[in-house]
Design goal:
Elements: H1 5-8, E1 14-19, E2 22-27, E3 47-52, E4 57-62, E5 67-73, E6 92-97, E7 103-108, E8 113-118, E9 123-129, E10 134-139, E11 146-150, E12 155-160, E13 165-171, E14 180-181, E15 187-190, E16 197-202, E17 207-213, E18 222-224, E19 230-235, E20 240-245, E21 252-257, E22 262-270, E23 273-280, E24 285-290, E25 296-302, E26 307-312, E27 318-323, E28 328-333, E29 338-344, E30 349-355, E31 378-383, E32 392-399, E33 404-411, E34 418-424, E35 434-441, E36 448-454, E37 472-477, E38 483-487
Antiparallel strand pairs: 1-2, 3-4, 3-30, 4-5, 6-7, 7-8, 8-9, 10-11, 11-12, 12-13, 14-15, 15-16, 16-17, 18-19, 19-20, 20-21, 22-23, 23-24, 24-25, 26-27, 27-28, 28-29, 31-32, 31-38, 32-33, 33-36, 34-35, 34-37, 37-38
Length: 490
């Protein structure tokens, strides 16, 4: 019997119902977090999406050939948003998608918005404005509601995705970072970015029924295992990943030292076993753990600058990683744990999702614009002058038109110490004139991510190309003029 994948997905995702002698295929609606519970073969109808925070775009990738199809422009670059008449979205950051794979929900931190996009046409269906600084959200397993973590406040916004209207709020610990569901839809898990407390919500009653102590107060991301047994959540400020049972009494099972700037986590079930993949931004790597008691580190995959969002393909054969300080997506073969492709995307990609069968028919390229409209970034690495020690940083400088946006991701610093990033005239002592760019303080794990805006693209690029009066990056600490890190120049 032939089936139409564009309409039903795999037969394994359907219920077979016999009515009056007729055999019908009825799609089973699943939570469709990752992994997907059943193997969904890769197709050109699949899509990978990234939320691009500085260009305010959503990048759209065809994973069958790892080709960027274009971007959905939801707003303008940073400088344009300063106008009191600006109406676009600002700081596009979070992503979620409906169980039927037909709606993408895009969350923008700066404009406090959720934008609903039709995956087949890439067309914006509507935008809803909610509370202060929403971060991440996802659809309930039955697809009837979208739950969004409003990180700037203390609640989950429950949204009717058909009417695009908030219908209730669920009070949780201050600074909820994300919300995901157990595959059976019974519980929702909500970690905090400001309070060392993870809340478990009963989905039917909308009540917090349990609280789990986080090993630190900053958890930006969480994933629920496909078998509904475990919840893994990252602790970015201390470089750890905590694992709890997804069943009452929600006991902590393990806390792993995963590395500085531990960002996102996701799962892969493959022929090799059951695994968790964790992006570690301070080391520019993805760590692969075999799930078990205890979890076992089985592979470390080097990737590009500041890996952030991560999501597996429908068949689990690949996992896609957003490179925040690389303006790119890297593809990893999960059977060999080797990087196999790099795809350029919009500026500072944050969340990333893989949506099987997102486009039921046609090319799926309508309403996309070319990435050529966005000038390519300059990427810089910094290290200690002596070449010794573990202090290091990656820097990306994106053009915003007349000015530029710089982001530094540093590790190996002294916890609690304040640092100064400057532009200098020379790459060697005494470095010449110094122009202060930004100050920041290292977190408890000795890491930091900081930004600056200005006319700063005159730094030397990694390719060695320079402008007429090149400048260089210098990092100092605690009012001391001596360099902690210098820009590496080829």
């Amino acid at each position: 019997m032939k089936t139409n994948r564009s309409r039903f997905g795999n037969v394994s995702n359907c219920l077979l119902i016999v009515i009056s002698g007729l055999l019908l295929l009825t799609p089973v609606v699943r939570a469709q977090q990752a992994p997907y519970g059943t193997s969904i073969p890769m197709s050109s109808r699949d899509r990978v999406y990234t939320a691009d925070q500085i260009s305010n775009t959503v990048s759209v990738i065809d994973p069958s050939n790892n080709r960027l199809l274009g971007v959905i422009r939801l707003g303008d670059p940073i400088t344009a948003v300063l106008s009191p008449l600006y109406k676009g979205q600002l700081l596009v950051h979070g992503l979620g998608f409906s169980p039927d794979h037909r709606t993408l929900a895009v969350i923008a931190i700066g404009s406090n918005s959720v934008t609903f996009i039709d995956t087949a046409s890439n067309k914006v269906k509507g935008t809803l404005y909610i509370g202060r600084s929403p971060h991440e959200g996802f659809f309930t397993p039955n697809g009837r509601e979208l739950w969004v973590a409003v990180r700037g406040e203390d609640y989950i916004s429950v949204i009717d995705p058909v009417r695009m209207k908030e219908v209730r709020r669920i009070q949780v610990a201050n600074g909820p970072g994300i919300v995901l569901f157990r595959p059976d839809g019974r519980y929702a898990f909500v970690p905090s970015s400001f309070t060392p407390e993870l809340n478990i919500v009963d989905v039917k009653s909308y009540k917090v029924i349990a609280k789990v102590k986080q090993a630190s107060s900053f958890s930006p991301n969480l994933a629920v295992s496909p078998d509904g047994s475990e919840v893994w959540f990252t602790l970015k400020d201390v470089g750890k990943t905590q694992i709890i049972s997804a069943k009452p009494p929600f006991t902590t099972l393990a806390t792993l030292d995963t590395g500085p700037i531990t960002n996102h986590v996701n799962f892969v079930d493959s022929a090799n076993g059951h695994f968790a993949y964790v992006t570690v931004g301070g080391l520019n790597e993805v760590r692969v753990y075999r799930r078990g008691t205890p979890p076992e580190l089985v592979a470390t995959v080097p990737v590009g600058n500041l890996p952030h969002g991560i999501w597996p393909s429908g068949d689990g054969r690949r996992i896609y990683v957003g490179l925040e300080n690389g303006d790119a997506v890297q593809v990893i073969d999960t059977l060999t744990n080797q990087a196999m492709a790099t795809i350029r995307v919009g500026q500072l990609p944050q969340a990333l999702v893989y949506v099987p069968d997102a486009v039921p028919s046609g090319a799926g390229t309508s309403n996309l614009v070319s990435l050529k409209e966005i000038e390519q970034a300059i990427q810089v690495k910094m290290a200690q002058p002596s070449g010794q020690g573990n202090a290091q940083a990656t820097v990306i400088i994106n053009s915003l038109g007349q000015v530029d946006q710089l982001q530094i991701a540093a590790s190996g610093l002294k916890p609690g110490l304040e640092y100064q990033l400057s532009l200098v005239d020379a790459a060697s002592p005494p470095y010449g004139n110094r122009i202060a760019l930004t100050k920041f303080k290292a977190n408890p794990a000795g890491t930091a991510i900081a930004q600056a805006i200005g006319p700063i693209r005159s730094v030397v690029s990694q390719s060695g190309a320079t402008q007429a009066a090149p400048r260089y990056l210098l990092l100092t600490a605690g009012g001391n003029d001596q360099p902690v890190m210098l820009q590496q120049v080829r």
